[in-house]
Structure formats: C-alpha cells, structure tokens
C-alpha cells in the first residue's frame, strides 16, 4: 500500500495542554509520527496541491486565523503557545473582533489545542499528505495511507479543537467529490467522535459519515456524537453515530463497525475515507477502550473485504510505544 508523510508535519510541537485542570505534556507529539514511520518502513513525500483543496472545506477567515494566531499572540506579549480562554457561547453575535483572545475563542472550542508559530505549516503539510493518498486512490490504487499529524477530525469548517486544525478526512472526501466521485463515505474509528467531520457534512447527502466512538455522555467531545444525531435537511440520514461504553473490547467494537459498514454499503460509495485512531488500544493514556494489538488487522480486513477504494488517514493514538505496531497491524489487514 502506498504511504505518505511530510517531515514538515513534525514541526508543530506545543509544550503543554490544559488537561483535567492541570497543565500536562502535550499528548499529540511529533514522536507519534516518528514511531509510526519506523514501523511502516518509511513513506513518500506528498506533492504540494496548494490551498485550494483546504479552502474547499475551511473558511478563508479560519485559514487566515491559523496563519496569524501565533504572531498575534506574541505581539500581545504572551508567553508560550496561543491558547483560548473565552468562548462566544451559542447565541452571541458574530462580532468581527481582532483581539487575539477573541479570535482564539471564536475559532476554537477547547483549551487543549495550542497554536505555535509552526502550526499552520505542519497542518498544511498534513492536509497535503491526505490529498496525496486520496489522489493515489483516485488514480487507481485500491488503498493508500496518509500518516496525518496533526490529526483532523475534531476540526470544523471554521474551528480547531482536540489537537486538530485542518480536517484531513473532510479535505480528502471533498477532493474526491471535486474529482467527480459522486458519493463518498467516511468511517471514523478513532476513540473520540469526529465532531468536525460531522459538522462539515451535516446537511449534505453526498458524503456519508459513520462513527464508532466512546459515548460522549462520558467522554470528550461531549456535545456531539450522541446516537440521535443523524444529520439535517438533505443530510438527514447521512450521519450515523454508534457510541460504545468504556471498556469496549474486540467483539463489541467489531460488531458495531459491521453496523457502520452495512450502513455505508447501503449508501453505495465510490470511495471510502477511514479516519483511523489507535487510541482505542487498551493502554492508551487518555482513552478507555480495551482493543488489543492483534485486533487491528482483523478490523481492517472487515473494511477491506467490502472492496471500496479506501483512503486511510491517521487520527489519534497516544501510547507512543505501541503506536507503531498498532498502525502497522491495521494497515496489514488491507494486504490480506
Ligand atoms: N480530559 C484525537 O484523538 N483531550 N484527539 C481530552 C480529557 C482532547 C483527542 C481531555 C482529546 C482529543 C484526534
Ligand atoms: Zn481520538
């Protein structure tokens, strides 16, 4: 399987994140990508397809914010990485404010996603990696892997959060649509619900979004991913949320993924994007499922067996020492 990664993705390295009331080391480290890269034996550099495919998903205001935030933070005399602390709660007016703290709250939904002077360049490279894998599949490969990092599925059209800045799965799906693919499905099997991806395609019937994730009544991102969220308008029925309890092991996860795959089969996509997170692993430091390393090839084979041309984009997974084996194992399920 072709694999893509750009070294520029490594330069985003925030120092600390606000986690359960304390500042802790940032979990979404460059070492994650390095561990995966070692385990899969390297990857090809993506071509540069420019900002067009990013702006097909994200708003110009938001892209400008990602480029400017670290500079504005520094100009305001602030130490460290840019982090929001005040948010325009639902119902507040859409004011055009330019103070950095107002911008951070406007374009971010949590305080766990710091922006550094290198964030834009790394996120841009991560998006190019997703696009390279997408075009490999559009050009005839049965499957391709984008070693994306920073990840993407918590980022919406105009907001960041959950370590995500550009929604790489959405950018991949939209690029496939724009290349003429009529129906594209996204299967999200990261531990966390992909709220950004859901929001981006919420009212659309051409991109089906199915997610298997920790019940948001108990886990981040809390406000999205409940089973009664099914999309709206033309998108009604094109969103499927399958929350699972803490402690979930292979049998329940696999059966739930089959439910998602059956729904995707009814939608009959020409291309599948898999948002793959290895934070479903039993030893993940911030998650509470209990999948084993041996489970990943099996879960991947269930996806592979459906026969859809498939773009796999990397999302979460924070147990760095196990990450390489878990990701390589997942990819091996497509080789069977
Ligand atoms: N106290 C991804 O896996 N932090 N993002 C939760 C819980 C945010 C995870 C803090 C977790 C985001 C791509
Ligand atoms: Zn996750």
TrEMBL record:
Q: Which cofactor does it need?
A: Zn(2+)
Top-rank lineage group of the source organism: Bacteria
Ranges where the Histone deacetylase domain occurs: 46-331
Asked if the keyword Metal-binding belongs to this entry, the reply reads yes
Keyword Protease assigned to the entry: answer is: no
- Keywords, sorted A to Z: Hydrolase, Metal-binding, Zinc
> What protein family does this chain belong to?
Belongs to the histone deacetylase family.
Any idea what this protein is called? Histone deacetylase family protein
Organism (species): Sphingomonas longa
């Amino acid at each position: 399987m072709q694999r893509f990664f750009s070294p520029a993705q490594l330069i985003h390295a925030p120092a600390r994140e606000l986690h359960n009331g304390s500042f802790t080391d940032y979990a979404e480290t460059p070492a994650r990508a390095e561990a995966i890269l070692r385990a899969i034996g390297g990857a090809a550099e993506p071509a540069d397809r420019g900002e067009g495919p990013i702006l097909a998903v994200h708003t110009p205001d938001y892209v400008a914010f990602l480029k400017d935030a670290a500079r504005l933070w520094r100009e305001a005399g602030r130490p460290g990485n840019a982090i929001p602390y005040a948010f325009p709660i639902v119902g507040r007016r859409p004011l055009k404010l330019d103070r950095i703290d107002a911008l951070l709250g406007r374009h971010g939904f949590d305080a766990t996603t710091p922006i550094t002077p290198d964030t834009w360049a790394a996120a841009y490279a991560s998006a190019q990696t997703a696009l390279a894998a997408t075009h490999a599949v559009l050009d005839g490969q049965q499957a391709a892997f984008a070693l994306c990092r920073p990840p993407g599925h918590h980022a919406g059209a105009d907001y960041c959060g959950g370590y995500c800045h550009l929604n790489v799965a959405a950018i991949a799906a939209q690029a496939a649509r724009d290349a003429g693919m009529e129906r594209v499905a996204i299967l999200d099997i990261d531990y966390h619900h992909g709220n950004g991806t859901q929001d981006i395609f919420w009212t659309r019937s051409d991109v089906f979004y199915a997610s298997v994730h920790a019940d948001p009544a108990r886990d981040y991102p809390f406000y999205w991913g409940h089973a009664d969220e099914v999309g709206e308008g033309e998108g009604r029925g094109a969103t499927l949320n399958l929350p699972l309890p803490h402690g979930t092991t292979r049998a329940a996860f696999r059966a739930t993924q089959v439910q998602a795959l059956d729904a995707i089969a009814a939608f009959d996509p020409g291309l599948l994007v898999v948002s793959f997170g290895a934070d479903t692993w039993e030893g993940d430091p911030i998650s509470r499922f209990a999948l084993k390393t041996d489970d990943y090839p099996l879960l991947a084979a269930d996806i592979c067996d459906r026969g859809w041309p498939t773009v796999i984009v990397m999302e979460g997974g924070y147990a760095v020492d196990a990450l390489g084996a878990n990701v390589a194992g997942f990819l091996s399920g497509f080789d069977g």
